[in-house]
Write a structure and sequence with these properties.
Length: 658
């Protein structure tokens, strides 16, 4: 990891500039640019070497320097930064549209049978790697850069170019299947993802063999949509999260997922109101809440901006960066912590292998994450097959619509047998029928259904789930809810709105078949919900699903290590500082009203929040950090710390020393 893990204040400047832009860098002065960054408190600047179009911003002898750039822009920044003690990480975009256009034989090729697969960028199986990519990296490593940031150094869509076809035939002895309906399609995607993985490892070997001091990161690599175990040579994990729905939720999701790998992780927080390139500004409170969410979940952040076409930097962006760095410095004592095992949300490698798209569908994981955040339960997100013995440290494991591999199924069975609590949904029944006490027999018809709670589960109206249901029979499990199917008329007239649920087509018709079952297995317990509960919550936001999940979790885990009691708008995480003390992070978030996404948090009003933390001994000291960020009242009885944190505006952490 080297120097990267010890430096926190980082800023990135995009500079994607079309080839016809004739004022590129006209107003850019490297000396004043770096001086302003230094005054803002920036320690590392991410600066462009190559943009999305394929323009280079250094004096390359290999490929295309921007035609209107008369200077070695990267070289000037590296020199000015070195004189002021600021490190430079060079940004390299691997799409290279210019070379894809100039060398059509290098271009990614899609197929009509795979909508959206056509691309106008280079293919990683083409000669572009050896004729452009690695020679350009060799040139960059001659500069005194401290790191490299690769963007789009991963496979996106299936490719059917001649280079891919030849390599696939050579390695697999068969042509590339042309349709997702082909029985060999998932095997092809596994191979295709492997192409991207091998490229990352080859790139790391190339860089480290020449400059082992250069820290390397790859945007969006080893995330839930492209899972895998990062190689040891990868210095840091990094991504610019999607910001057009709820940035704080995306930041939390990925930071919690990356916790398992033990590497430095940085998540971008941009100044833009509508993500990259709109040149507007999000409210300062919103930006700081994003910074706080990263910190609260064990990550740090990179402030993102975009230089104007002439190379000038917006002063207001630097002011926001200054506030962000000050916010971070006030919380430096909170860095370097580790997550305390409470609840584990498990992603399955088997589910990844069966995916029919290059990017894995992670909606069920996101739904589980969102629901647990709202319920105030601290959790990690794990690749189940990599977790191994660590899974036994958790009080509760959630398997959200993930088909387990045989190895993971056996691990989960042993976990429950030894006293663990398991909540599994829908397709997770595969390989776990004995643990869950049910027998599955395929899916019910349709894409909708209802859960009808029993009196034992609190009764109530049928709960609508927009998703599939598995047909099950109880085999030793207690039935807590039954399934109702949507009504379907025996004959259709083909009139408009006939499929509209409100017209009666979706009215619940009881089946009497189980939908939720609870079973004992060894010393532990498991609850199975035979529906796509978490996928539905991710997309449909049905509050009743959250309430059902709360009841189920209360049954499985009536006594828990930690929970944020209220309010739902405060995210809580439980971590352990290097000195052994507990850190309870609390992040306030409430978006304003709006007809369009994203909904912004214009001004965060202070709230009072409560949490409970079960401790192994009486606390020696309790304080709020940073001091003055909130007020604290607490009591300790029967081994439980009950805390009321008052006037929490954006972020505070309660430090508990034993």
């Amino acid at each position: 990891m080297g120097w990267y893990s010890s430096i926190t204040s980082k800023m990135h400047f995009d500079y994607h500039t079309p080839v016809h832009a004739d004022i590129v860098a006209n107003s850019f002065d490297a000396e004043s640019f770096v001086e302003e960054l230094k005054r803002a408190g920036c320690e590392v600047v991410y600066f462009f070497a190559k943009d999305v179009f394929g323009n280079c911003y250094w004096d390359t002898k290999v490929s295309f320097k921007h035609p209107h750039l008369r200077r070695d822009l990267l070289g000037e920044v590296v020199e000015a930064a070195g004189e002021r003690g600021v490190r430079v990480v060079a940004y390299y975009n691997a799409l290279d549209l210019i070379n894809a256009k100039g060398h059509p034989e290098w271009r990614h090729r899609g197929s009509e049978s795979v909508p959206g697969s056509e691309g106008f960028y280079v293919c990683f199986n083409s000669p572009w790697l050896d004729e452009v990519f690695f020679p350009e990296l060799g040139e960059l490593l001659e500069y005194s850069i401290s790191g490299l940031f690769f963007d789009f150094l991963y496979v996106q869509h299936p490719c059917f170019c001649d280079w891919c076809e030849a390599r696939h035939r050579g390695e697999r002895g068969a042509p590339i299947p042309r349709s997702p309906s082909d029985p060999n399609w998932t095997r092809y995607l596994e191979w295709w993802r492997g192409v991207g993985e091998r490229l990352i490892r080859r790139t790391l070997a190339f860089v480290k063999s020449r400059r082992p001091d250069v820290a390397v990161g790859v945007n969006w690599a080893y995330t839930p949509r492209q899972p895998g175990e990062p190689p040891p040579e990868l210095d840091y994990l990094v991504l610019d999260p999607y910001e057009l729905d709820c940035p704080v939720l995306n930041i939390s999701y990925h930071a919690r997922y990356w916790e398992q790998f033990g590497k430095p992780r940085d998540i971008y927080v941009t100044r833009f109101a509508l993500w990259w390139g709109d040149c507007g500004f999000k409210p300062p409170d919103e930006l700081l809440a994003e910074c706080a969410t990263a910190i609260a979940n064990g990550a740090t952040f990179i402030v993102g901006d975009h230089l104007y076409v002439d190379g000038s930097c917006e002063p207001t962006a630097l002011e926001l960066a200054t506030k962000s760095f000050e916010f971070l410095r006030e919380r430096e004592a909170l860095l370097g912590s580790r997550s305390v095992p409470c609840v584990a949300v498990v992603q399955s490698v088997e589910e990844i292998k069966r995916s029919v798209s290059v990017f894995v569908d992670d909606d069920p994981l996101r739904g589980a994450h969102e629901l647990l955040v709202e319920l105030g339960l601290h959790h990690d997100i794990l690749l189940g097959e990599l977790a191994g013995e660590r899974i036994f440290e958790y009080e509760l494991v959630v398997v959200p619509e993930q088909r387990p591999s045989p190895a993971l199924a056996e691990l989960l069975a042993e976990y429950v047998r030894s006293g663990g609590a398991l909540l599994a949904t829908c397709s997770a029944v595969e390989g776990l029928e004995g643990v869950l006490g049910v027998e599955a027999s395929g899916y019910a018809q349709g894409e909708n259904g209802y859960i009808v709670p029993s009196l034992e589960l609190g009764s109530g109206p049928p709960l609508f789930v927009r998703g599939r249901f598995v047909k099950i029979k109880a085999r030793g499990a207690r039935v807590l809810a039954t399934r109702a199917d949507p009504y379907a008329p025996p004959l259709r007239e083909g009139l408009p709105y006939e499929d509209w649920l409100g017209a009666g087509y979706g009215s619940p018709v009881p089946t009497g078949e189980p939908a939720v079952c609870e079973a004992k297995h060894g010393k532990g317990r498991a609850i199975y919900v035979a529906a796509e509960l978490f996928r539905c919550y991710r997309s449909y936001q049905n509050w009743a699903i959250r309430e059902l999940a709360k009841r189920l979790l209360d049954r499985l885990l009536p006594v828990r290590r930690f929970e944020r009691v209220r309010p739902r708008t405060v995210e809580a995480s439980l971590r352990r500082a290097p000195d052994g003390s507990y850190l309870v992070h609390l992040v306030n978030w409430r978006a304003g009203r709006g007809y369009a996404l994203p909904m912004h948090a214009w001004e965060l009003e202070p709230v009072d929040t409560e949490f409970k933390l079960r401790l192994e001994g009486e606390p020696r000291s309790i304080e709020v950090l940073p001091r003055g960020s909130a007020e604290l009242e607490w009591k300790f009885r029967d081994g439980v710390l009950e805390a009321l944190v008052k006037k929490l505006r954006i972020h505070a952490a309660v430090k508990v020393e034993l």
